Predict the 3D structure of the following.
Amino acid sequence: MSRHPDLQAYFREAASWDADHLAQAERATRMARLLAGLMGLVAIAALGAVSALTPLKTVEPYLIRVDNTSGVVDVVPAYAGEQPLGETVTRYLLTHYVSTCERFALAVAEQDYAECGSFHTAQRNQAWAAQWAPGNPDSPLNRYRDGSTLRAEVQAVSFFERASGATDLAQVRFARVLRPGGGGAEVATHWIATIQYAYGKPATDPRTRRWNPLGFRILEYRLEPEVSTASAEHRDGSP
């Protein structure tokens, strides 16, 4: 059976359109696969770059300073424990350490204990823990359990130079003022703390660094009562 010429032409055009449509669909599929592959490679490269940079990511505290006159803002770099610090800073740190570590009030005792520990070496911290142990009868937790409080009033800080030229020794004179828990007058006693200190690299722990950002360390701490001139004369039998 012969077909009409017009129908044959129609069928040929329809077949050609189908072929073109199929070819376009195949090209689009190939392009989509190519783009997906490229995006996958980009994602892998990005993950590799982030992984390589991860060890470089650190958290550093910083201080923003504003000039009172000009209003200029700048960032004060954190101390890295490499530059010597002046005597004024050391005097302040010694005063702060003695004032904090020689006082006692039950409400802040736990925080004071931890803050003082941020200034200690490992060896000094062992002695500090033994001093505060509940099993120690002389522990502040036992001596002042009746509600008594103790504060330290620093009176003088003196620095000493060793024969070798090292300047790592200081004496801090202070008064301990005891307020009895049951009431009554305050009682003051006078003491001398001989301290060997040093500066090191500040701790990386944020809590420790908040208390001790300069890496100040108490190496040795020797405490003895201060004997007044009048007491010494009376003891020697002098008038």
Notes: The beta strands are 63-66, 73-76, 149-160, 169-179, 187-199, 216-225.
